[in-house]
Amino acid sequence: MKYVIFLGDGMADYPCEALGGKTPLMVANKPNMDALCAKGETGLVKTVDDTLSPGSDVANLSVMGYDPMKYYTGRSPLEALSIGVELKDTDVTFRANVVTLSDEENFADKTMVDYSSGEITTEEAHQLIDYVKEHLKFDHISFYGGTSYRHLMVWDGGSTNVTLTPPHDISDRKITEYLPKGDGADIILKIMEESHKLLKDHPINKDRVARGLNPANTLWAWGQGTKPLLDLFTDKYGISGTMISAVDLLKGIGTGAKMDVIEVPGATGNLDTNFDGKAEAAISALKNGTDFVYIHMEAPDECGHHGDLEGKIKSIELIDEKVVGPVAAYLKESGEDFRILITPDHPTPIAIKTHVRDAIPFAIYDSRKDSGSGLSYTEDNATSTGLFIEPGYKLMERFLEK
Q: Residues 100, 220: contact at Cβ < 8 Å?
């Protein structure tokens, strides 16, 4: 038996006025997802407990069957695993986004213009992080380059008792009310302020501005956490597993669970990602004997954060055409029994440009069964069946028939 999860990050949404009260999932041309849903079962799953923040970290742990209430120690430690940072028990990690802030002289008066600095390239961002490493010196604090705008800060002896805000939650807002509060907040704020002084006139940013792009002019710290400890995937489920993703968070989860983590050339986490390469990597892994593949695709989430309705619809269609279609076709031709799960991790509604903890639609297809729901894959259809799974980590048990 083979198992494949197609995870469209942030794919679920609210009804959009511009779509006549429909959602991106309802209007997107996605014949492969719809066909699998029609011959399978569909319902809702709540991946984020009401006591937890609706981040991709909590939500993807939940989809993978790891109870966040037990396993979650913060977002950035999982990303540290992906980057290859060996953490000590005394380390506290932070995500360090390179963001675009506005030009007001007083730091607290600035506005969060762009949480991703225009989806800055990894190559550009690493030059900026290297510059920060060279010129920004704080005792027991280190910086590490990640992917695109997503980077890492590690503080040996730091505290998690600090309130920090994800930058994608405050797009177009003044940062005044969202500056660090709590233990070590003064140092974190100092790092953010000093990074702005360092980066605003860096040649990389001057070049980006000249090209009409947003400058990556500030480090924004958030997502604090401590060294994670996940059960090994093979021990937990008795099968081998492969993780395919462009983002360090998912690669870190895979690394922590000792799954095979595949690096796909040209995988960016954006609408321009190498969808074909992700499908090819999944098929190769299945051919080479893996039992389970988790294919994470970030593009719908990024479009949601930017309020890009057209892009979100397009991302769903590309996932369907370039990933779901080819992988499902390979599985059918292989002659082996298989099960497919299609799901987001959480909604990222266009209207509010950030995550919510609402229940999400899922669909499970089993090659051994000839009939199913007869429904296309949408939020409304999933709701109509009355099938509701909570807590969310129980979905994996249903998918794997454990």
A: no
Instruction: Report whether 18 contacts 12 (CB < 8 A).
Output: no
3-state secondary structure at position 174: strand
* CB-CB contact of 164 with 180 (8 Å): yes
Containing H/E element for 181? Answer: strand 181-182
What is the residue whose two structure tokens read 């599985």? 331
Identify the pLDDT of residue 370: 84
Give the integer Cα–Cα distance in Å for 90 and 342: 38
Contact 365, 36 (CB under 8 A): yes
Pairing of strands 388-389, 41-45: parallel
Longest dimension (CA), the chain: 65
Which string of DSSP letters, residue by residue, matches 276-342?
HHHHHHHHHHHHTT-SEEEEEE-HHHHHHHTT-HHHHHHHHHHHIIIIIHHHHHHHHHH-S-EEEEE
- The residue ranges of the chain whose pLDDT is under 70 are none
Q: What is the CA radius of gyration of the chain?
A: 21
Enter the pTM of the model.
0.88
* Range list of H helices, 151-211: 185-199, 203-210
User: Residue 173's pLDDT is what?
Assistant: 96
pLDDT given at position 352: 95
In the chain, the domains with their CATH numbers are 2-72+230-400 (3.40.720.10), 83-225 (no CATH)
Q: Are 30 and 317 in contact (CB under 8 A)?
A: yes
> Could you report the per-residue pLDDT of 367-385, keeping only the tens digit for each?
999 889 999 999 999 999 9
Start-end of H helices in 136-226: 185-199, 203-210
Model pLDDT, residue 402: 85
Q: Where are the alpha helices (DSSP H) in 185-274?
A: 185-199, 203-210, 233-237, 248-256
Tokens of 34: 């719809």
